[in-house]
Amino acid sequence: MPLYNSQQIKIYNSLSAEKEIFKPITxxxxxxxxxxPTVYSNVHLGNVRTFMSxxxxxxxxxxxxxxIRYVRNITDAGHLENDAxxxxxxxxxxxxxEAIEPMEIVQRYTVDFHNILNxxxxxxxxxxxxxxxxxxxxxxxIKTIIDNGFAYVVNGSVYFDVLKYNEVKPYGILSKxxxxxxxxxxxxxxxxxxxKNPQDFALWKRAEPQHIMRWPSPWSDGFPGWxxxxxxxxxxxxxxxxxxxxxxxxxxxxxxECEIAQxxxxxxxxxxxxxxxxxxxxxxxxxxxxxxxNFILPNExxxxxxxxxxxxxxxxxxxxxxxxxxxxSVLDFTDxxxxxxxxxxxxxxxxxxxxxxxxxxxQSSIDVNGWKQTCYDAMNDDFNTSILIAQLFEAVKYINQxxxxxxxxxxxxxxxxxxxxxxxxxxxxGLESSSKTETSxxxxxxxxxxxxxxxxxxxxNKDFALSDKIRDELAAIGIQLKDGKEGTTYTTN
Length: 493
Ligand code: AMP
Ligand code: ZN
Description:
Strand order of the largest sheet: 4-3-9-10
Oligomer: single chain
Helix content: 40-55%
Radius of gyration: 27 Å
Mean pLDDT: 94
CATH class of the largest domain: Alpha Beta
CATH superfamily of the largest domain: HUPs
Bound molecules: adenosine monophosphate, zinc ion
Largest sheet: 4 strands, parallel
Structural class: alpha/beta
CATH topology of the largest domain: Rossmann fold
Shape: globular
């Protein structure tokens, strides 16, 4: 029997602003869509936090036995500067500045994104669709929205008619904005725009002659609106209604609000059962963001090369730091916070080793099964990793008491304790043990030292054929051995 039958998850749904019991549309199956990055620059640690938050949610749902299809897109066109409907495409701008093809920019930062998420031990999604690979689907949705009367064409561009939509369905339902306030607060049109009303948003934009990322459509050679991409890709792979849609809090309005309006306007259904928003990582009191320069890159954390930190931290320590906060809380990035996390993480890893040597008795002095359920309860309560980690430290305390003999445990309970500890630390939180995160240089040097030792033994045994073979084959892969007075050393090129 799958575990989800015995665990009841509650999810904070941004749409209802309440924690709700999670009941997937189809029993046993979960469809989850998370807005992916716009690949025009290196991901910063703030971006990583959001993707890590959904990685843990994905991991926990998988652990409970759900068959989950996790779709996370790559935005490789249509996302303009300032999230606006005017201005330059972020990717095209970077390509222009570097005098290379937009698709070279896309490739470079997609690879960077994958490498970084992999370093943090995030699982890859089930499908990773690109916006440019789904232009046809986007055009089809626009046609339907026009046919249904919720969009209009001006000069080759297509805009969503927010006021018309609001006559039928409330616009602002997710971000809890009132249409009157939106009208009042949006800038008046400056005469340059083709929009009927300033709160309308672009579904399709006619490309100016200098705009290189362009596709043919019934309305013009142009490109899709950013909001439409996610509607097209989520509904294509997960259906017109699916279970979970996630993203950072900053995407709630207008991006996700527009997604709801587009889906409703094209097929009359609210697309998502549970809207989930991860909160922001802040630094020096402000949101971490590329645009303001207030950010730290993951590689700077691993090297320690950034003025905001005093030393280097491993990916697992940075991940542990993030996991210590609940995904809906704002998290302040500080050096002191990372140092504390490093200590905590090391204590957890020591406890993992200590479990293996814990003495067993005929009886247990604590309720191991009760403790195990508190770990599930923490995750069932809107994926509260912060409380989960507090429960894991309860077990660390217990493991230490077993060592000094003040508490006791039966063989069976010890194996439950060990399994639960491993499940939550490695499988659910996605942390990696310190030995696994040892750098590849350490591993390489260990392997070369071993070969040097074997070669020395071969020479002592006068097996010069073998000793030369070791030297030559290492040289062939770029590792030079050098024999000196102090013994053999090596260099790599
Ligand atoms: P972008 O590539 O700018 O669309 O951002 C990718 C994801 O990172 C989105 O889900 C954003 O909400 C999220 N994000 C951006 N800045 C932060 C931050 N400081 N903290 C957490 N998430 C962020
Ligand atoms: Zn999106």
